[in-house]
Design a protein that fits this description.
- The structure is a single chain.
- The chain has 136 residues and is α/β, with parallel strands linked by helices.
- It has a single domain, classed as CBS-domain, CATH 3.10.580.
- Strands 1-7-6-5 form a 4-stranded mixed beta sheet. A 3-stranded mixed beta sheet has the order 2-3-4.
- The chain is elongated, with a radius of gyration of 16 Å.
């Protein structure tokens, strides 16, 4: 069986958000586009990632001002980063070992994709479908 690469299953050209924008803007973007992970950039440089469940939780905290708090205050500062040619097996193993659910895909210093646990499940479905065809 051939190696599967991140490129095949990643969301290409994902939305990103500037680190200075408020938490509320990130939450709104994610809800409008039905996404759960949003890379945070400074210019074109990746500086972090945020996930919708954490944003929703933080936005609900008493005393927090989601319209004023910059996303840089709540982002994960060192997201897991790979290239489009990274072996999917390596990424899924990382997800399992670190209990993470997303990876930012970077090529030549620019964000080119995001791969999530849901994308990894799509790969599993493809592999299971292929296995069924082979055994029939």
């Amino acid at each position: 069986m051939q190696n599967l690469h991140v490129r095949r299953y990643m969301t290409m050209t994902p939305l990103t958000i500037d680190r200075h924008l408020p938490l509320k803007t990130a939450e709104k973007l994610m809800q409008e586009h039905k996404i759960r992970h949003l890379p945070v950039v400074d210019g074109e440089t990746l500086v972090g990632i945020v996930a919708l469940p954490e944003l929703s939780f933080l936005a609900a905290l008493a005393g927090l001002e989601p319209d004023r708090m910059p996303i840089s205050e709540v982002m994960t500062r060192k997201p897991y980063v790979v290239t489009p040619d990274t072996d999917l097996y390596q990424v899924v193993t990382h997800f399992l070992e670190q209990k993470e659910s997303s990876v930012v895909v970077v090529e030549e210093g620019k964000v080119v994709g995001v791969l999530t646990l849901i994308d990894a499940l799509r790969a599993l479905v493809d592999l299971l479908a292929e296995a069924r065809r082979v055994t029939k």
